[in-house]
Amino acid sequence: MTPDPQPCDPQPTDGQQGLLDRRRFVQLAGVGAAATAVGLGAPTLRESLAAASVRPEGTFSLGVASGDPLADGVVLWTRLAPDPLAAHGHGGMPDDPVAVRWEVADDASFRRVVRRGMERADFTSGHAVHAEVSGLAPGRDYYYRFAADGETSPVGRTRTAPAPGARPDSLRFAFASCQSWAGGRYAAYRTMAEEDLDLVVHLGDYVYERSDTRTVSDFRLLHALYKTSPDLRAAHAAFPFVVVFDDHEVDNDWAGDVSQDNEPVESFRALRAAAFQAYYEHLPLRRAQVPRGPEMRIHRRLTYGRLLELNVLDTRPPAVVRDWTLVFTTPTARDGEMAQTTVRRSRGRSATTVVWLLTRLARVLVVLVSGWVVHRLVVTPLVEDEDWIAGFLVLWLVVAYVVLPRLQRLLARAYVPDYFVGRTRTGEGLLGDPVNLAVMGQEVELLRAMSDAGWTRADELTWRTGLHLLRCTILRRTYPAAPVSPLFVFTRRQDLAFEQEIAGKPSRRHHVRFWQCPEGWYMPGGLRVEWVGAGTYDRSVGFSMFTLQITHKIGEDIDLERDHIVRTLERAGAVRSVHWVENYFSGYHTRNGGGDAISTDGNLPVIHLNHPSGTTGPPPDA
Asked: Has residue 44 been placed in a domain?
């Protein structure tokens, strides 16, 4: 790369910053009049493209961006498009793939480069580039740039999140939404780019669909049209963005497989697939957000130390209630009469929502009836006894730790399969945490790799270590090698367990269990690995309504923990390669044996560890 970086983004000229010139005004006025005449209310995409007077040039005409900052890294984005508004939405690029280099540095002059790498930009993905960078320091500013075809991109600036246990005093962020195209000038973004922000959160409606946006090429051109705004490019280059779609990225007021005009499901799914692909191609999103046809996993969670947990939600799933009526009753000024304002919205019914609601109501009813039975048969006799508190504790201990485990073990033996299904099993035989890692390497390599990556091997769970863990949890004292509960794969408990304590408290920790695979054993599909692992994050200690026991409560998105484990190993230089098997398991939302909700995209990383000597070579066949 050239030693002299370009500025973050070319600034608008004085003429661009001022009022629209006469020719530009006539163009826009003509487009608006034509749209009104045919009743569209907005110009078509083709009319907007024809009226666009600003066409950025160069391989990196659409700018650069960063997003989804973690404590140790970010994702970097660009798209190669020397002619961004060229017909067919290819950005003026040939069909051939292009190698794109990237660099991350401590300084804007790139004298202290801390990370560099290369990504492949393919024709099928619009020559978009998504580089997931790890190994950075928390809470730091970094500068980045790309190079391809003899050109160097503008320089972008990004900022990593604070360390997981840090307590920052404040967080400065801006949010944006509903940025309908109106001449390509976003004064808010121009002002935003001059601020000192930690991040920008975009809440949706990044683009607005047109009457003639149907294909991937159409949506690529729509996104490229928005990116011709120098103010939007400047904001992207200045701060990391966290983005989520709403409705207009696809179709007004859509949800699930139902469009605004109730078009055939297959037709709308094709439209959604095209819109999602273009959306991913033009924004700094991670591998977990790669669309799979008409489906895209947009929900995720980011943290800023102990100050903020940012939950990014998907508001367009099939279970969204699509028919509703709201009645607002308010007093009027005349004789205390009541006025009613009724708002109706009808977009087709969702049977999924009805089933979900009835299921929840049935569960509540069962709990209430069970509570009444327990009160009549157990609590009332105990209260009449002077030692009712001691009696209640004894009853709870017997039920939670003797009766229920035996009952669960009996039922699990009859109904839960004992062969490998991608889930661990608890001591009672219930389905536990998902298997979300696989490793190729010897035990000595795994032990050294985890140690180099900052993981502590967990103590075996005994009466002594269990009591010590309980004491440290109550007193909030550190226990870096705290034991983890036994889970079972291959009908045996874990062979190795590791953890990373958070903020010196054993109640919050990263942890992972490993089982060595039997000789000659293959995963479903013929995948050969030497270890399988289950990694989850303990977020707190609490009472489980599922088992009635005091236990660790895990974070729902186990993919975050899976990716954290992979990143720590990569950062420690303990990995030769990581082979991702996409859709190995079906992505699902369910619960583990303790009743904690869990979700995953179903992707499985196969981690090839370095040899003990530290030499590297080609990875063995997966």
From this structure: no
Do 435 and 534 lie in one domain? The reply is yes
Q: How far apart are alpha carbons 122 and 124 in whole angstroms?
A: 5
Task: State the number of CA atoms in the 13 A half-sphere of 427 facing the CB.
Answer: 10
Residues 4-40 have pLDDT tens digits of 444 344 333 333 333 444 444 444 444 444 343 333 4
Closest to 605 in 3D by CA, of 582, 573, 572: 582
Cα dihedral 362, 364, 367, 372 sign: negative
Give me the amino acid identity at 491. Answer: T
Question: Number of helices (H) and strands (E), helices first, in the chain?
Answer: 14, 29
Question: Is residue 317 included in any domain, yes or no?
Answer: no
Range of the domain at 355: 351-399
Q: Where are the alpha helices (DSSP H) in 258-387?
A: 265-281, 351-374, 380-383
Antiparallel, parallel or unpaired: β 505-516 and 531-543: antiparallel
pLDDT in tens, 366-421: 767 766 766 666 666 656 655 556 666 666 666 666 766 677 667 767 667 666 77
Report the SS3 class of residue 215.
coil
Number of folded domains that form the chain: 3
Residues 561-607: tens digit of each pLDDT? 999 999 999 998 999 999 988 877 765 556 666 667 788 888 899 99
Kindly state the DSSP code that residue 87 receives in the 8-state scheme.
G
Stated pTM of the model:
0.55
Beta strand extents in 198-337 (DSSP E only): 199-202, 240-243, 300-304, 308-312, 323-331
